[in-house]
Specification:
The protein has one domain: q2cbj1_9rhob like domain (Jelly Rolls). The protein has 5 helices and 14 strands. Helix 3 runs antiparallel to helix 4. The longest helix is centred in the first third of the chain and has 13 residues. Bound molecules: 2-oxoglutaric acid. 2-oxoglutaric acid binds next to strand 3, strand 6, strand 12 and strand 13.
Length: 274
């Protein structure tokens, strides 16, 4: 697996730096069953963060949950034993890789619900040039329902204003949906194809799409079951950032302050180069 990455390592890291997203075919094929068992366990034993995003209709739910790796052994094994940290280190060009959290996103067959265009960084209390989420579909994903990413958007001066996925209102409790406070409204890349280039790859189960926390992304609904496991990691230069409102995940009582590295007892270092 690492051989695959090493073979194209420098090119991939260059593409990640320029585009803010890369497709890594077949990287985790050996881990599909393990991750699928974890997703099943997660659904049977949801956390307080489990959310069906308002999709209660029979057409197919879009549910998500996160921050469960320490109680779901399949997720913990994947984070520490799959070699994913090696991949993250290579892409971020970082010596260290720290686990932020994992996120499961499931669109049941027929789920009409889109994933709105957004970028993750403003929802998080950590930021920096070296960040990466690695999104791993566990099912065949046609291009119509795959993750869609705006090429180069991680380099924009203003991040996209964070909003609630269910209400569309300002995530920090603000009502602004227009440009303000260092944010810009979410783009509509389909309406302006000359302005925005969308990267989107049909995926086999076990492929991976790696993207920067500032890369704007979204997805359409899904005609077929689309289970995805996303592991969020940070590198050497990522630091705690005090946001102007709540964050997602919240991690209540963390006691970190602006400029600190994430505390290692909550956000463990992952093995790199072992
Ligand atoms: O799976 C999706 O539809 C969206 C994934 C996503 O937003 C993420 O992993 O940050």
């Amino acid at each position: 697996m690492s051989d695959h990455l090493h073979a194209a390592g420098a090119n991939l890291a260059d593409a990640f730096a320029t585009d803010g997203a890369v497709h890594l075919p077949g990287l985790f094929t050996d881990w599909i069953d393990e991750l699928a068992a974890g997703v099943e366990r997660n659904e049977a034993q949801p956390s307080e963060f489990f959310d069906d995003n308002g999709t209660t209709d029979d057409a197919g739910r879009f549910w998500d949950d996160y921050c469960n790796w320490s109680r779901i052994p399949e997720f913990e094994r994947f984070a520490f034993q799959s070699g994913i940290a090696e991949v993250a280190a290579g892409l971020m060009r970082s010596d260290t890789v720290q686990l932020f959290h994992e996120h499961v996103l499931v669109k049941e067959a027929g789920a009409p619900r889109r994933t709105p265009w957004h970028c993750d960084a403003p929802y998080y209390f950590v930021d920096g040039p070296q960040t990466v989420s690695i999104w791993i579909p566990l099912d065949l994903v046609p291009v119509e329902s795959t993750l869609r990413l705006v090429r180069g958007s991680h380099l924009w001066d203003e991040a996209v204003h964070p909003v609630s996925w269910t209400t569309g209102g300002g995530f920090y409790g603000d009502d602004e949906t227009t440009r303000s406070g260092g944010f810009q409204p979410a783009p509509d890349p389909d309406a302006e194809p000359d302005r925005f280039e969308v990267l989107e790859w049909a995926c086999e189960p076990g492929d991976a799409v790696a993207f920067h926390y500032r890369t704007v992304h979204g997805a359409r609904g899904s005609a077929s079951l689309r289970r995805a496991f996303s592991l969020r990691m940070v590198g050497d230069d990522a630091r705690y950032v005090q946001r102007r409102g709540r964050t997602s995940p919240p991690f209540d009582g963390h006691e970190m302050v602006d400029g600190q590295r994430l505390r290692e007892d909550w956000f463990p270092m992952l093995p790199v180069g072992s």
